[in-house]
Amino acid sequence: MKLETRPGRPLRGRIRVPGDKSVSHRALMFNGLGRGEARIEGLLDALDVKATATCMRRLGVHLARRGEATVVRGLGGALKEPTQVLDCGNSGTSMRLLAGLIAGQDLFAVLTGDASLNGRPMGRVADPLRAMGARIDAREGGTRPPLAIRGGGLVAGAYTSPVASAQVKSCLMLATLGAREGTLEFREPTRSRDHTERMLRAMGVVLEERGDALLLEAGQVPECRDVIVPGDVSSAAFFLVAAAITPGSDLVVENVGLNPTRSGVIDVLEAMGARIEVLDRRDASGEPVGDLRVLHSELKGARVEGDLIPRLVDEIPALAIAASFAQGESVFADAAEARVKECDRIAVTVSGLRTCGVEVEERPDGMVVQGGGFSGGSIEAHHDHRIAMAFAVAGCASGGVQVPDASAVATSFPSFSELLESCR
Questions:
Q1: What structural domains and CATH numbers belong to the chain?
Q2: What are phi and psi of 348, to 5 degrees?
Q3: How far is it, in rounded angstroms, from Cα 411 to Cα 388?
Q4: If you placed Cys at 111, which of 69, 132, 147, 160 could pair as Cys (CB 3.0 to 4.6 Å)?
Q5: 280 included as an active-site residue
Q6: Largest Cα–Cα distance in the chain?
Q7: What is the pLDDT of residues 264-323, one digit of tens each?
């Protein structure tokens, strides 16, 4: 799949981006574990979520299409031992959350993925799961997939994560739901996205927040609940940036999830001078939702660091594109976590910006981008969907951008190219 974007036309009209990937994964897993039956509307139809669905089926969960909805029949807290390897494809969320789900069950399963996923670190979930009593074998000293997990008999306790990570937090929460005894007392440096807490509370699971700790008692079984999945703010981010940097643009992105632990990209764009208006704020299945109107703006540089990073770590490539069209200098710091995504997003973003004529300095935990110099060019996405889409939207306001291999876009946003052309 090749992406090629040329300048010349503003972005106008009203569009909808696909369902939120994080919410989609959780709606399948939590309802699959739960007691009863639920309908999921707006489930993301992309490879990452399909991988989760396939894995849940192999764990005994019944999934079926009913009209536009996906119906999940839960297993009441006891999953079935799979007879096949669980293939997570390219989805780190699938692997890390399923590791916790499986560790809490009295069964054996093997989690694997594609070459990219099997090269990503899993020690941050495997080590605390081992401390709870799970037996996990893996490559490279127990840190790299495939993960062979013998679950059951876990004891929950206190754990302080060295990084703010919703995947680590959710993994340990799922393991605790199946644990034999104990209470998870989870802490992290700053608060990560809270989709798991919102959804589990809606499913009747008792969670307590005490100071900086999240407390969850072992052995609880969620009650299945219908879920309406909002549009993914991470997918909307590419269109917000595209409209902000392209002269004459006036675009509305409808039905976007505005969870405050995820919406840092909007805060940063507004700090850069982007004109973004939230229309028709509402609630969908416990998640705040709204329509975002964005107009072309004269952007200025900004600092992106500290507590903002967990709220926008996936949007760093898109924000780096915005920074390259802004006036002045933008600094991205405290973002070393972006180096262990589908690729090293700091290094790959810096390389792409330089290819396109931008002056940029790479730093261990981020980059410094000098605005005003994006000329366009051909860049390598390194099998990363967010890199491919970020540079593609830059072509709307430059000399054009080509991404020769953008096949990874199918993992989260298969309709990206068609949707981008539909509003130009």
A1: 3-19+231-422 (3.65.10.10), 21-216 (3.65.10.10)
A2: -70, -40
A3: 12
A4: 147
A5: no
A6: 62
A7: 999 999 999 999 999 999 998 889 999 999 999 999 999 999 999 999 999 999 999 999
